[in-house]
Sequence to fold (564 residues):
Amino acid sequence: MKKKDIKEKDKKTKSKLSATTKFTILAIILIAIFSIALTPVTLQNDTFYTIKIGEHITSYGIDMKDPFSWHEELSYTYPHWGYDVITYNIYNNFGMQGIYIATCILSAILGISIYLVNTKLAKNQIISFIITIGAMYMLRGYIAARAQLVTFILFILTIFLIEKFIETKKKRYAIGLIVIPIAIANLHLAVFPFYFVLYLPYIAEYIIAILGEIIIYRKIEVGKLKHKIKKLAKTSGNEEKIQELEKRLRELEDKIDKIKIKRTKELQNPYKIRLTKNDNVKWLIIIMIICIFTGLLTPLGTTPYTYLVKTMQGNTTQNINEHLPMTISSETEVICTLIIFVAVLFFTKIKIKLSDLFMIGGLCYLMLASRRQVTMFVLIGSVILNRIIIELINLYNYNKGTLEKLTKKITTKVGIVITTILILALSYHIAKDKIDDKYIDKTTYPVEACDYILNNIDLGQARFYNEYNYGSYMIFRGIPVFIDSRADLYAPEFSGKKDDIFMDFIETSGIAKFYEDIFDKYDITHAIMYKNSKINMIISKTKDSNYEKLYEDDYFVVYKRLNV
Fold:
């Protein structure tokens, strides 16, 4: 090659690298801005008890007992103790603003992680950027100061590490896969079992590939013939029989060789599903087995292995909104994404990896069974959707290099300005309604009612009935509660009590049980309620003489129960 040609090639390579680097920097900055715009200012109810639990652990350690409810001796598992301690320390040093900033940072890290994982696995920046923006928008309802935000990041990194290990078998990816479940077991152990679900599609594809080889290549029959020949060779007088068996073996092996050639061609150009036998999956299985034992690397004992089982045995998942089956009509973005998947797979010539098909099918099932699994469908599905879209573009793009040219145009001065304006405009549109929001929403949490309670009621003698959604805020203010959003704590599977406190609340608040019966059962002395709650409407409409109204504002009311 001439020196002139070499220089021109180097120049093009440098130009390409320059455009790639510019786009990466631009994408990361814009994704971070968009992710921060999605972050809510108002804190979610779980954040309040998280702060207090972190404070308790910092002061007293993990005692496996609940210190915040007035119910005596409730067992508590501290399912995200590590996250609680970190959150408390942020709050202790920087206040509510610190928690908001930390959530913004985690949201930005999540968005950037989705983008980088997509670019590494799907090998395209523009589609990865678009899909990341879409994925973060779909996840907006789950971005909050909760442990799940950290595990979202860990799960998308898990997919990256699994796929890179299968591809390269490098030790650093294996180490990462072992570290992640240790972090999950200490930050958010409720999702510890789900970590292993991510391995299953790859293992299933490998097992099917092996079974296919055994059946198609008749390995069992070949093995039997070889064993018979070896056995007959030990005794004399069987030469004729041995020759006959050897002839059958050669014929079978010739037939298998022809099948192998045909099979190789079919695998290179399958009709719709790509089936690959990657022997690195054997090592992935060993890693998964090692990771199973990482659940013991926590001060919570065997809780990572028992928590989900106990949760599924109880009634909490049937009565909490995010655990209920997904309502298809209310998830427009998810349905649109599924339509794209189905349309591309069925009406184009693109092919999909069997592991990807298993993954997306399994995530769809989990999502339909529990709406909170929409998050996993979006996170992991983003990688699979990215792959099939890029394959679709490559399949029907007769003018090669279109995406590379588009990358160069976007990274010009004009392109950077236009792209930045578009994302900033979208970010502003999302964030503008949250500009005046407060960290604590007084319409949702009884801020002023708690002020009254702390100034006028002896908490040592009071046993408050309260509602599920703001119990965590009362804990934050130092008021012992009847119930809060730690649903598992109040179920007999976890609490160690015969009484199902959680179901007593559900049935009382829904008027399936008469409130006086439950109040008698638990010796309730005071009640704090939403003004529009069913119980309050009954008390106020019937002018129940057993209740003295102590406090009232636009949203909450506090009663003293007279005949206790």
Summary: The radius of gyration is 30 Å. The beta strands are 273-274, 352-353, 464-465, 526-530, 547-552, 556-561. The chain has a mean pLDDT of 88. The CA atoms of residues 123 and 280 lie 21 Å apart.
